[in-house]
Every structure is written in C-alpha cells, then in structure tokens.
Amino acid sequence: MSSISRREFVKVAASALVATVALSASKATSREVGGRRWAMFIDVSKCYGCMACVVACAAENNVPVGVFRTWVERHVLPGGGVVFVPKQCNHCDNPPCVKPCPTGATYRTADGLVLVDPGKCIGCGACIVACPYGARYFNPLTGAADKCTFCDHRIKLGRLPACVEACPTRARVFGDLSDPGSEVRRIVDRVQTRVLKPETGAEPQIYYYALPEVASK
Amino acid sequence: MSVDRRTFVKGLVAVALAGGGLLAYSPVLYKIVKPKARVYKHTTGSTGG
Amino acid sequence: MSYPSYPYGYMYPNEVAVGLTWLPIIATYMLFVSIASGSAILLSLEVLFNIGLRRLTPLLLMLSLATGLVYLLGPLADLRRPERAFYILVYPHLVPSDTYSGVSLIALMAGLMWPLLVILLVVLGYITLYRGMWGSIIAKILALALAFTCILWSTYFALLQFTTIPLLTVHNLTPLIPVELLLESIALAGSIALLALLVHYRSLERPIAGILSQVILACSLAFIAFRIFQVFRLHAYMTGSPEATTFIGVFSTLNTVVLILAVLSSILAAHVNLRGSAISASLLALLSLLWVFVDRWLFAVNIQSISKTSLSVIPVSLDLASWALESTAMTLLALFVYYVLYTWVIREPLLKLEGSGGGVG
Fold first, then answer.
1. What does each C-alpha distance from C8 to A68, C247, C310, C315 come to in angstroms?
2. C-alpha radius of gyration, chain C, whole number
C-alpha cells in the first residue's frame, strides 16, 4: 500500500480546490451568458399605425389570418387626438400563463423569453385565459396555443425580431436589459416608462413611453 | 348455454346506454383519431429593415 | 373570402378570434363534478359521523362513481388537441421551477386527485358495504381523506378561475364562490340522491328523506345568503365604474335566474321535509339540476365572455349542437356506469341494507 506525504496531500487538495473554484467560475460565467434579459421598449409617440410590424410578424412566423402575435391598437384620446399602441406578448418575469399549463408546454427560458412548445401543448386554453394581455390564441392550424416569441429563431442568430426590423420610425427598440451598454437599457434608464397592467403582478418586460391611460387596459 | 330473458334485457339496456353515449361522443372520438394539421416551421425570411 | 369584422368596444383582437376559450361543455362537466363530489361528501359524512344515511350509501357511492368516472369526457371534448390528453400524465406540471413556475391546478386535478378520488371511493365502498367495517378507524381515515379531497374537488372550477382569470371584477366576487360551489354540490347531490332513493325504494324512506331534505334546505339557504351578499358587495363597492357595468351586464340576468331557482329548490326541500311527497322530491331534483347548471353556465360561459380589458363583452358564437351531443354522451355513459354498478356490482350490499329495515347503526 502506498502512502502519501503531508506535502503531497496538500498539493492534491489544493489542486482539487482550484479545479472546483475554476469549475464554479465557469458555471458563473455561463449563468451570466444565459442571464440575458430580452426586453422591448416601445415609443408610442413614434408609432403612426402603418402596421408594418404586424405584417412582418405574420410573414416571418406564418401567423394565420385572424390571429395576431402583435397588433396595433388605435385609441382616440379625450381631446380628439389619435394614438397608435403596438401590443404583443410581454414576456413577463412572473408569467401568469406558465403557471396553469398542465403539461409544461409553456415555459420561461433563462434569458426571459416565454415560449410555447407546440408539440407538448394539449390545447386546454388555460394559458390563453390566464394571459392578461390577450397575447395568446389557439393557432387554427395546429390547435396549440401560440404567441409572440420575440422571434427567438432570429435573435439566436444575432438578428432583430421581425417587428423591430420592419418598424420605419424605430418606435420599437429591442435588446438585452441586463446589459448596461445596450440601447434598450439606456433608454429605459433614461426615460419614464410604463408597463401594461402592473396590478396583475406579471412584471411585463415591454416598456412603453408616452402610453396614454386610455390604452393601458 | 342459455341466457334468461331478464339478464338479456339487462344486458340490452347496458349496451344501449353505452352505445348511445359512444355514438353521441363520436365527433370527439373522430377528432382524436383524424389526421393532424401540419405544423409549420419558423422561417428566417426577409422582412426588410 | 370574408374577413372577420371587428366588433365595437375595447377588446384584444385575439379574444375576438378565439371567442370562448373554454367551451360550454365545461358547464356540463362542472355539473358532473358537483354531483360526484357532493355525493362523496355525503357518503364520507355518513361514515364519519353516522348521520343516518346508511341505507343511502350504496346509491351515493354509485352516483359518485358514475359521474366521477365519466366527467373527464367534458374537458376532453374541450381540448383542441384531445389526442394529447395523456400528456397531463406524462408531463404533469406539478413541481415549480424557474422554467416552469407555479403548479398547474389542471394537472393536479386530472393527474393526481382524480385517480386518488376513484381509489378512495372504491376502497371505502368496499370496506364499508362489503366488509361492513363502518366504524373502523381505517374507514374513518379514508372518509376523512375523501371528504377533504372532495371539498377541494367541488370548489375546483372556482379555484381555477381565481388563479387564471386576470379580471379584478371577477376576483372581487371570487372569495365566496368556492364556498358557494361546495354548497351547491351538496344540495345537488342530495337532491339527486333523493330521486335515486325514490326510484330504488319506490317511496321516500322517511328518516332518510327527512335528513336529506334538511341538508338540501340548509345548503340552498346558505347559498342564497352568500350570493345575495356578493351581489351587494358588487353593487356597493364597484357601481359606476365601466368595469362593473360590463360585469353586471353579463352577470345579473342569469344570476337572478340562479337565485330564483335556488329559492324554489329550498321551498321544495322544505316541502319534502314536511310532506315527503314523491312529486315534490322529483321536482326538487329537476330544479336543483337546473339551478346548479345555470350557475355553472353563468361562470363558464358568461363570465368568460368578458374581455380582458374589462370594458367590453366578446361576441361569442356558441356551438350548441356539439354541446348538446357531448352532454348527452356524458349523461348516457354516466347512466351506463350507474346501471352496471346497480345491476351487477353493488346489488348485494343494496339488498343487504334493504333487508336491514332502515337501521342506523
């Protein structure tokens, strides 16, 4: 039987400690990478209701006629002015739609996207009922619940969501809210924003500027 | 083997109830077995911008 | 090709496209849940406290099993992908995590509570009706577990609505709705059991009918009091707001019908208690069914048609033909299960209890 000296034992223990710390550090780094927080800023004063975002989204995501991943609401202000408010899934931090899903077809990713696995959805509609923003619908083609994904298939490739890319006035700004250097973070830090229905506790991640009260329901 | 009339009637009632129920439920059963719609995949087509 | 026209009022376009997310069959489904859970509660009360319904217990067990075994056909018909219904058992969302926050009540009920309920009913029925272990500690523990689970079961839809529907007007009403659902379930199950008693014994067995009618009367009166209190709350705190106006618009008419039916049911229950006539007992079963069904319709269909903006009502087109077919299917299959249980399975204990001459042990 071989015996090891105290010095060797300390060496092995030290290297094990270093390896453990290094491994934890690498985990922390990957957590940081996964810790992005995708969010959107919408400047209502810049939207003039051209619906380019709606069309781009429908074309990009094969959204059937009659249902919408994003839509633009037209509201008449008390003074008679007209305002256009783009709306969509708010990719909430505390998503009410994830909780009632019986099969876990709806889930939240590490970087804050709330997504639907159409292969797991049984079409019970609990998430549709639970979404305070009317962002979900039954896809008439698949029967599964469907909604905006922030174009996760595009942002993975470093591209912007279709609605953001198509907006002619840059009313929509998309980015990583946890990155202090990102445009969306700088804007949200600088201007006074509002979210929709904060009373539901959903912690939505679409920040509106110049949102009138009449459109905030 | 012979079945007496009473048992036969009982069986008939049971079969009628079950058959009627299944018949009325058949549209749902059809939904379960019919071929499914094709799931469309995401594209990364050009949207301008 | 025609495009859908957008109705007047502030609502989200997807709401207009989807219409009713939960189809009207959910109202029938909730009616079945009420009968199943109410009967099981009465059964467990008899085992726990010996309230004098011993000779009714086989009928209660059959009622509960017949409705409890077929009631899931309702939500199955409501699913847009019914062929995937078994996913609830394969991927049940029961453990909260960062990815899947919360616990799904649907998964809890369909995947966990329902099998538990059926097992509890069957085991309790076996050890009491076949083995005669009415006073045993095992029977009492099982009855307690059954009562607890069935109280949750009877209030399930209210809990589901409370945890999913994001409307504050509904939440303002919701605190008492679970209690109302429980009361309705016991009253309805009692009325149906009274009818089953009449059909089985060809007469209203006096002590049992007396106890049952008292239970029905108490539950319906308590329901009426709670519902009137809630209407008062709604009008006292919220009148004048646009949200309340929308809510009252879809709620008031059917709610008045529900209250009238509940009052009529309680009058009939009092009549059964005093006179014990077969006609009033049959009418009571019919009226209770109608009362509870209209109330379920009110919550499953009317309340659901309020837009998420709280400011308008979604125009919904009801597929009543499908609803009628599916409801008929559920009723026929429940009758089938009841008939099979009555004719071949629970025949022996029924005859034994008939022979006992109404003994309350």
1. 18, 17, 14, 10
2. 21
A200 to C166: CB separation less than 8 angstroms, yes or no: yes
pLDDT tens for residues C130-155? Answer: 888 888 999 999 999 999 999 999 99
* d(CA A56, nearest CA chain B) in Å: 6
Contact B17 C73 (CB under 8 A): no
Touching A: which chains, 3+ CB pairs < 8 A?
Answer: B, C
Prediction ipTM score: 0.91
- Give all strands of the β-sheet with A38-43 in edge-to-edge order: A172-176, A38-43, A206-209
Torsions phi, psi for A208 (to 5 deg): -105, 140
| 3-state class (DSSP) for residue C292 | helix
Given a cut of 60, whether residue B26 has pLDDT beyond it is: yes
Same domain, A161 and A198: yes
- Any chain A CB within 8 A of the CB of C15? yes
Domain of residue A18, residue span = 1-34
Which of A19-33, B34-48, C3-17, C256-270 is least confident? A19-33
Domains and CATH numbers, chain C: 20-355 (1.20.1630.10)
Let me know whether A165 and A210 are in one domain: yes
Chains that touch B (3 or more CB pairs under 8 A): A, C
Q: Minimal Cα–Cα distance from B16 to chain A, Å?
A: 31
Give me the helix-helix angle, C177-201 and C156-164, nearest 10°: 160
Cβ-based interface (< 8 Å): residues of B facing A: 36-40, 42-45, 47-49
- Alpha-carbon distance of C333 to C225, in angstroms, equals 35
Q: Which residues of A touch C22 (CB under 8 A)?
A: 125, 129
Task: Answer whether residue A39 shows pLDDT above 90.
Answer: yes
Counting DSSP H helices and E strands in chain B, the numbers are 2, 0
Same domain, A59 and A119: yes
pLDDT tens digits along A97-108 = 999 999 999 999
Residue type, C350: L
Contacts of B43 in chain A (CB under 8 A): 60-62
Exposure string for C166-184, b = 16+ CB within 10 A, e = fewer:
bbebbebbbebbbebbbbb
Q: Are residues A145 and A165 in the same domain?
A: yes
> Number of folded domains in chain A?
2
Helices (H) and strands (E) in chain C, counts: 16, 0
pLDDT over 50 (residue B9): yes
The alpha carbon of residue A212 and the mean position of all alpha carbons in its chain are separated, in whole angstroms, by: 23
